[in-house]
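Worked example

This section walks through a single chain of length 65. The input is the sequence exactly as stored; nothing has been trimmed or padded.
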Amino acid sequence: MKVFINKNPHELTEGATLADAIAAIQAKPPFAAAVNMQFVPNTQYARHPLQDQDRIDIISPVTGG
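Given that input, the structure is written out below as tokens.
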């Protein structure tokens, strides 16, 4: 299935979860994740199923002033 991670297309297997998408881009903590603009708590990444065409945002904090 095709999903978009930070606006870039990625192919994942059917039945993939948000945890699989995060692993696909090798995201390193800390970060927050949202699927279709809905925040997903990190405790739910492995349980959050993805659907074809989902839009996933992985957002890292930015420091500075």
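What to look for: The mean pLDDT is 96.
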